[in-house]
Model the fold of this input.
Amino acid sequence: MNNKTKKSLKRAAPWLALLFWLTVWLLIALIFKKPLLLPTPIAVAKKLGALLCTLPFWQALLLSLLRIMAGIVAAIALGVLLAFLCARLKVLDCIVAPLLDLFKATPVASVIFLLLLFMGRNTVPLFIAFAMALPIVFANVKEGLLQADRQLFEMAAVFEVPRARILRGITLPSLTPYLMAACRAAISLAWKAGIAAEVLAVPEHALGRAIFESKQYLLTDELFAYTVTVLIISAALEKATLYFLRDKGGKNPC
Done:
């Protein structure tokens, strides 16, 4: 088997796996014969196609994206900043780290209900996404800073390399793998937690609200269609972020 064939098989493997599980789903649905509980993939695809032609679907999709991505972007920005500060100031690290560990340990549902007491339901998904992503970004970036090669920084200090060039040429390339790992985990978790917050908080024009209403009225094919939408967006966000970080991190800025 030549390299070209191996590469083709590697690219096709995820699609073949997807096809396999769709087939399993179809067979179980056909054997079960209860579309109210388990619709077929074909029925879900038809429903998703119908939803794609409606304005409320796109309103819910865009507003969910805006809310949750705003929380994720804020978490990445603050997480990176706190990681830089805590890597330098141990006192600050002793103060911040336990709080972020508490964020990770607290059940998402509890946080959602607590936030509903203090803020509007439209804002809760944003804060949930922020709270889920922040500890992951902070921990990964701080670890990347601590694991960076000290000799490179010492050599740069000896040759009086400007700080901006050290940041671009040493710090950022060293951090890129850690930041990629952080974004990969944080975006996926925060997106799912944000949708869960929408299901419980039921904000206006949201995918979570649509999922909640589909479940309430036993619109199972619609429920599956919205769930598939959430999964597709989660995968797309992760791929887009990793592509961007790989593209930026792969370039030598010096």
